Amino acid sequence: MSLYSLLRPFAFAIDAETAHRATIAALSLAPRLPLPNFAPALASQVAGLRFPSPVGLAAGFDKDAEVPDAMLGLGFGFVEVGTLTPNPQAGNPKPRLFRLKEDRAVINRMGFNNGGLEAALDRLRKRERRGVLGVNIGANKDSEDRIADYVAGVTRMSPVADYLTVNISSPNTPGLRNLQAGGELVELLQAVRDARTPNGLPGPRSAAGPQPATPPIFLKVAPDLEAGDHDRIVRAAGDNGIDALIVANTTVSRPALRSAQRGETGGLSGRPLKALALEQLRLFRSASGGSLPLIAVGGIENADDAWDRIAAGASLVQLYSAMVYEGPGIARRIADGLAHRLGQSGMSNIVEAVGSR
Ligand SMILES: Cc1cc2nc3c(=O)[nH]c(=O)nc-3n(C[C@H](O)[C@H](O)[C@H](O)COP(=O)(O)O)c2cc1C
Asked: Which terminus, N or C, of the chain has the lesser number of Cβ atoms within 10 Å?
């Protein structure tokens, strides 16, 4: 029995956001763990970065970059902090985070609550660089120039990030996802491309190996897309030097759900998102033909799910909601399960499995 299975009843007895805050507080006090040793066959190079395991922590758990090293130590092959906006903002009124236990799902309408870029930058500057750290950036709700907010995120956070994620897919900032539309997307990606700041030449060295001179930029999309969107987004990303797509954020759709909180407004994640996220990944794989690395997220809760995404074309995977139910040990269990699957299929490295189905 894991420590988390003992603690879970207490965490589930209090409201979800209080439990989350308590978890972050506890993790920030915990002694720093060494980086785990993963099976060498799990290591891969994506967008010029070396990932020791393809299983990462998705954005939204550590919005303010308080505990990235704790999460790396607990077994994530990479950690994405944020979403961070230029100015601090409170987010939506509480309650805004709901566990749908019967569905193994979460609904959230947090609304980019975060302490702002500068506070996170201070924190990240003090840290010793080890492990792969992504910084997810967004726009303030009341911003008059959203594109300028992303440009600020790129220029401010480049020196401390191994990669940056341009998040235009949160359903909880009104109008944000309009940035996925044709003209706006191209304008945004051009501005981001022009803002890419060298983070020091030669790049700083970290446990992840030598870093590229400018952090690669990933684009995170929603799973609620229509026919034609995939080709268009792949083209805009390719034309503007985007290094990978993260597929996908939470969904505003509502597959059949059983839990009492199923009517809450917000983005749905966890098990009910699984089929949609896999379908969207397949559509992006067929639109890109493998030319753009894909990072799969949404409903991944075990090694089989992770394997399915990798076989469907994902170079890396991320998760969040399953950790609410299974605890942080899930990252290591999935990594070990993937290493086992590789051995069974006679492949010597995870890269061989990418798009193998
Ligand atoms: C409480 C919560 C907060 C989130 N906040 C963010 C965020 O700030 N930025 C972001 O890009 N994604 C955010 N996400 C989305 C996750 O990164 C992920 O894309 C989504 O939850 C699907 O993965 P999962 O089913 O493994 O949770 C959040 C998800 C949850 C559950």
From this structure: N
